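Saturday, quiet lab. Running sequence design on the structure tokens for the scaffold JK sent over.
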């Protein structure tokens, strides 16, 4: 954008008069009465071609952050394209679960009327703390107690669904609940259990810098919550791993 004196402004705008693409996306979300917290998926509000514009906007604003950190990205070959790399990383990799639709999952009827404990894991998970945007790295175990009316899904689909939920900024306490909610809706089992064990770089890299602390939490639904023997069996089996 040019200023009144004809010089190029450092503030980035897009060709039309509505300004930043993030402003237009935000307006759509608010008009729909929807939420756009860090761990929410907003894919349905992004129109074709807008993710590229959003990535460009993030790149331009990240460049401003580097400038405010007094980093000479013009002459420093190591940071010359850092803003571009960070923008791509956020939108296409580590936070991609916010900006893309859920993966397609084929569901199969429980023809054999399976009703015994199933365990999937450990599934490697990567996320980021929404407080500091520092990495969360860990593992998830999922226990399922199906019934004759349950839907079954392919083994790899558990990992895909968990990755889609985890690849956005959040806190671990909420992440396990969201995993449980999604799988309960997809599978309709008698019971579901989710356990996550993760390292938090917001404790290891900054703050107290405690390299040993980890967080383990769980969500138990249905028969896992009501049947202590089933819960004990599940927990003992994942400990054996």
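Result came back. Writing it out in full:
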């Amino acid at each position: 954008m040019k200023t009144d004196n004809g010089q190029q402004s450092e503030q980035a705008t897009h060709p039309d008069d509505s300004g930043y693409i993030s402003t237009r996306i935000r307006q759509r979300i608010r008009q729909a009465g929807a939420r756009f917290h860090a761990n929410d998926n907003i894919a349905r509000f992004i129109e074709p071609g807008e993710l590229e514009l959003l990535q460009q906007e993030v790149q331009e604003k990240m460049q401003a952050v580097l400038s405010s950190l007094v980093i000479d990205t013009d002459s420093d070959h190591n940071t010359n394209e850092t803003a571009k790399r960070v923008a791509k990383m956020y939108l296409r990799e580590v936070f991609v679960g916010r900006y893309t639709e859920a993966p397609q999952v084929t569901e199969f009827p429980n023809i054999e009327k399976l009703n015994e404990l199933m365990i999937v894991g450990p599934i490697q998970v990567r996320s980021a703390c929404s407080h500091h945007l520092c990495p969360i790295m860990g593992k998830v175990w999922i226990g399922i107690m199906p019934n004759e009316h349950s839907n079954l899904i392919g083994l790899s689909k558990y990992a895909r669904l968990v990755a889609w939920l985890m690849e956005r900024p959040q806190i671990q306490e909420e992440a396990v609940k969201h995993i449980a909610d999604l799988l309960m809706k997809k599978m309709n089992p008698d019971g579901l259990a989710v356990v996550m064990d993760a390292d938090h770089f917001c404790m290891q890299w900054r703050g107290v810098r405690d390299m040993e602390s980890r967080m383990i939490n769980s969500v138990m639904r249905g028969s896992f919550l009501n049947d202590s023997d089933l819960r004990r069996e599940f927990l003992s089996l994942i400990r054996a791993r």
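Notes for JK: Strands lie at 107-109, 118-129, 135-145, 151-153, 169-170, 191-200, 215-222. Confidence is low (pLDDT under 50) at residues 1-17. Ask whether to fix the surface positions before the next round.
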